[in-house]
Design brief:
Elements: H1 22-27, E1 33-37, E2 45-52, E3 57-62, E4 68-80, E5 85-89, E6 93-96, E7 101-118
């Protein structure tokens, strides 16, 4: 245990641990969308395993703030950047730099992929000072 300077008491030491069996995710029937999500408190990363059914797509979009790593867990498809399509297959590891335009398309067998990026800061509500009316 680590000591804290707060009144809540000692904080447990961080311990590496298995979060899920990804092979189990891809072998079970799965709906489209997020099949697994990193939810541990105090993390600095966000990660998701996403399932695209056969021939499904993710429309063209830009992530302006975050670099993203995308790892193909199972299946295949294509990622299309600015006018360039690249084949994806199991084991492909892609870097999607912030500001890059991209879309994804699953192949005939569908696509399971893991994304990892820096965690976005939580929503903060801030006070806005309004000018005094006179």
């Amino acid at each position: 245990m680590r000591e804290t300077d707060g009144a809540a008491g000692p904080v447990p030491e961080p311990v590496p641990r298995t979060l899920c069996d990804v092979t189990g995710l891809v072998t079970a029937p799965a709906p489209a969308g997020v099949a697994w999500k990193l939810t541990e408190a105090g993390r600095q990363l966000d990660a998701n395993v996403v399932h695209l059914p056969p021939n499904a797509t993710v429309d063209t979009h830009v992530e302006p703030e975050l670099d993203v790593l995308l790892f193909v867990v199972a299946g295949g498809g294509t990622v299309t950047g600015t006018g360039r399509a690249e084949h994806l297959s199991e084991g492909s590891l892609l870097w999607l730099p912030r500001g890059s335009s991209r879309s994804l398309a699953a192949g005939d067998d569908g696509l399971f992929y893991l994304t990892v990026h820096r965690r976005r800061p939580g929503l903060q509500i801030r006070r806005t000072d309004r000018p005094a009316s006179g």
